[in-house]
Fold:
Amino acid sequence: MYRIGIDAMGGDYAPDVVVEGAIMALGEIEPESRIVLFGDKDRICKLLRMHNCPEDTFDIVPTTQVITMDDHPVKAFSSKTDSSITVGFNYLKRNAIDGFASAGSTGAMMTGAMYSSEVVRNVIRPAISVKIPTADGGNVLLLDVGLNVDCKPDVLYQYGILGSVYAQSVLGKEHPRVALLNIGEEKEKGNLVTKATYELMASTEKFNFSGNIEARDIFTGQIADVIVCDGFVGNTILKQTEGFYRIAKMRGINDDYIDQLNYEQEGGTVVLGINAIVLIGHGCSTAHAIKNMILQTEKSIKAGLVNNLQDIFRDF
Amino acid sequence: MYRIGIDAMGGDYAPDVVVEGAIMALGEIEPESRIVLFGDKDRICKLLRMHNCPEDTFDIVPTTQVITMDDHPVKAFSSKTDSSITVGFNYLKRNAIDGFASAGSTGAMMTGAMYSSEVVRNVIRPAISVKIPTADGGNVLLLDVGLNVDCKPDVLYQYGILGSVYAQSVLGKEHPRVALLNIGEEKEKGNLVTKATYELMASTEKFNFSGNIEARDIFTGQIADVIVCDGFVGNTILKQTEGFYRIAKMRGINDDYIDQLNYEQEGGTVVLGINAIVLIGHGCSTAHAIKNMILQTEKSIKAGLVNNLQDIFRDF
Structure:
């Protein structure tokens, strides 16, 4: 039985879309899994009645406070002790749930993740990663997308391992190709950090290194299943993608693939390298996005992601 | 009279499209300007006859060698002494031409630029910049796009000046807004380098600093006329743009604005911070792109770009 902790109060349209997304997820999670909702019980129950959904479909942990976008994330996490995020992480810490996800304050979620879970032994720094749809119908995992904006080569090298393990255990790719984002395909290309990282990656046996990838090839899916870069570059890539999506919409372009690039609607950010399953959805998540976030959380739990990471980093 | 030096042998479709582009430019350059073509005189003259264009329309400097994409740029620049690029830079060095442009080997062009021209006094490092069309019908100058992949804050700060002077003198923008590419709008966002750069830029009187810009806003034209970033990030942005253009084409999307993002066809890379006007076109330049490259070169000469840069950096 997997206990999937969900912040019912997180996101711009919470708790409405969160409850709706949780109901949508019911048909797709394992029969014995339980979704645990943290939030305003009265509002949650009202929404459940509206959807003709019995109250006992979910475990509900009542909380009275909400960390909003106006709150200082670090301060709010410790001062709003009865907020859905803080209570959720307390449950996670004492293993009362197996994973926790929220579309609420990214800062508070990161604070919670760091306070409640330790970094996997031998991991230098955790990363946050995003799954980007590719034009060939697949997807590619990009990391880091903003947690570490100044990365040393050994950190980037480890991101290759983190990404590879996630792609293998959760995304179901057998021998994920891990590429290093760079400004040229040749190994001598790049800045000081990527050049040194290339050397480390080229001699590894911990993952299947496929060399450098240029940004023009991110979306083809042809070269990589996992793309490693520092958080500054990864965040820039995500935001440029968002910019293109917006411009396409502004220009009245309707295209199935371009629509998938609206990553704010599509998935969550996965925290990799800590001893817990933590997912952060986008503030503007729809019920569909919440459903995906719940399924992704369950998949990470089911795959034993944390154990797999602990194993590979054990004798690092 | 401006003497615009053009490498007739540079580019995938040279000399054909170069000669064609030069003929196209004739109607738009100043009547007293002269286009000086460097290359295989027989082939150039044959093409001119084909276009019913008298030979004396252009100054032709005959050369017998060509630096190809297979050549090592630095070695070829010094060993192929009678190549169109090497001879062109010799002319530029002794002021026999006022600017030099080529759609040939970027590496050889950069080598030539560095060998034949000194860096403007007090400029720490030159940059290469690209003009990107924005969705509002304008454009934005992005620099650096690949020359300096490891930039210190003082270098990025100077790029703000280089870009501002170019936008003002050549692109005709009165008080160009210079923004720093970053992963958040707030001044405390960023990596070590961008945070320190923000401090330098915020207190400058050398240009109109408009704060941080996120990659999602590059293409709107709303926030900046000039965007400063290091060469790794700038090159990644350009290549991601290229990737989107390709995917749009692959998906059968036809849109006026998206088509303009095919920057390989649209303009050239301008070398900023040296005591000469040097433009590098893309290898796959069409005649239209060559025409634009010629006009951009003339504009930079006419605007006194080098003098303007020398002035602002004089008492740095």
Observations:
- The mean pLDDT of chain A is 95.
